[in-house]
Amino acid sequence: MGAGASSVMGREGEAEDHETGLGNLPESCVAAVLLYLDPPEICRAAHLSRTFRGAASADFVWEAKLPENYMYLVELASGGKSPGERDRLCLKEVYARLCRPNPFDGGNKEFWLDKSWGGFCMSISSKALLITGIDDRRYWNYIPTEESRFYTVAYLQHTWWFEVDGEIDFYFPAGTYSLFFRLHLGRASKRLGRRICSSEHIHGWDIKPVQFQLSTSDGQNTISHCYLDEPGRWILYHAGVFVVENSNISTKIQFSLTQIDCTHTKGGVCVDSVLIYPKGFIPKRSLFPTCKSV
Fold first, then answer.
1. Residue 20 confidence (pLDDT)
2. Are 184 and 235 in contact, with CB atoms under 8 Å apart?
3. Which pTM value belongs to this model?
4. In the chain, count of helices (H) and strands (E)?
5. Predicted pLDDT at 79
6. What distance in Å separates the CA atoms of residue 210 and residue 38, rounded to the nearest whole number?
7. CA 220/CA 202 separation, integer angstroms
8. Is the model's pLDDT at 17 over the cut of 50?
């Protein structure tokens, strides 16, 4: 298509007015073809000609890339803005708006669409989780860091009873999702512009594995176990998979991370967030250890 396109392009990148030029194709036909492309490909095709640019802005093209319940997501992302302001957005702008991080629940949660294909993603801050002992500074502290999208993580020095619980009640777009805990052994900081990691408090995680548990309001349940290792790296630990069949019905997800064997203490771990991704989606620069399901 590249060679054919270049042969009918003018000096300024617009199709010349030839009988067989791209500019003579009906915009509706071009839009029908664009339906089969991914969003980045649609945006690149928009540079081919005025016809392609117009077709690439057609609402029905972008409606096919949006989740079925995109109006609910727009309402949540708007943060209370007037309906008139939302209604003025074309669906291409709606897609772009939903691909940006959209905070809610006081900024402790965010959702976004992956811009490459529209998959729904969510991140839940450690401050939105129920962490046993979080108010006791002898055990836990919130520490600032640029390595979290929320700029704060919960750091455990030591404890006998390690338990992190959370839940989210949300109208998820239909699909299959994986839930992860984002954890880091050791306390990272910067010194003279270089990243360093203190392993001072790391202990107890090699004795017994932690347990991940996930359940949903419609009866889905999963449990898995995994040892925490690889100090100095942020790792996504897989807690389980859940399926949403109807985006118009709210799904309540409950999840937990525990190591409550009180025969030994454990410590030196940072809890950043819980992440929900479409199953099979692999974020860049992420490590995934193997966890054993039961």
1. 57
2. yes
3. 0.86
4. 8, 16
5. 79
6. 39
7. 34
8. no
Return all residues near 170 (Cβ < 8 A) that are at least 6 apart.
122, 250, 251, 253
Radius of gyration over every alpha carbon of the chain, rounded to an integer in angstroms: 24
The number of residues in the chain equals 294
Using CA atoms, how far apart are residues 40 and 264, in angstroms rounded to an integer?
51
Amino acid code (one letter) for 279 = K
Enter the tokens of residue 282.
Answer: 């692999």
Which amino acid is residue 220, in one-letter code? Q
pLDDT at 45 over 60: yes
Query: What tokens appear for 16 in the block?
Result: 């010349």
* Residue 31: alpha-carbon gap to chain centroid: 29
Does residue 157 surpass a pLDDT of 50? yes
- How far is the C-alpha of 254 from the C-alpha of 181, rounded, in Å? 13
Exposure b/e, 254-267, CB count within 10 A at least 16 = b: ebbbebeeeeebbb
Alpha-carbon torsion 68, 72, 76, 77, what sign? positive
